[in-house]
Design goal:
alpha/beta; Rossmann fold; 3 helices
């Protein structure tokens, strides 16, 4: 399994990320909470990768080994995630099928948009924005 930390240029900064699992497996993107980094997923990512899944754990801007440009608004981090997916478009050709554990990062900014993107993965009780 590939667990080396990698980097990509996205949204004008360098974002660091880790990868586990077979390259041809369905992708899962894991996002950490503020004050943490992608290493937080080091215990659960191998379990998900055994699914099999291709697991990506991103270090958000200002966290881990990603750049620290000083702007840490939710909207900017959301744009970073979109740019990250675009930068890896060859590796992740169907980003709309990607499962994202975004906590409140995306949900707080645009809850309806977030829920529409993950609706098929939610139970009916979870389909209402809080």
């Amino acid at each position: 399994m590939d667990t080396d930390q990698r980097t990509v240029q996205a949204n004008g900064i360098t974002l660091a990320y880790r990868v586990w699992g077979p390259q041809d497996a369905p992708a899962v993107l894991l996002l950490h909470a503020r004050g943490a980094d992608g290493a937080d997923w080091s215990e659960i990512a191998p379990v998900l990768a055994a699914g099999p899944r291709r697991v990506y754990a991103l270090d958000l801007r200002g966290h881990g080994r990603s750049d620290r440009p000083g702007d840490y608004a939710y909207e900017t981090m959301r744009d970073d995630v979109h740019a990250f997916l675009a930068a890896l478009a060859d590796t992740l050709p169907d980003a709309r099928r990607l499962t994202i554990d975004a906590g409140h990062l995306v949900h707080e900014v645009r809850p309806e948009e977030f829920l529409a993107a993950v609706e098929e993965f939610l139970s009916s009780a979870d389909r209402t924005p809080s």
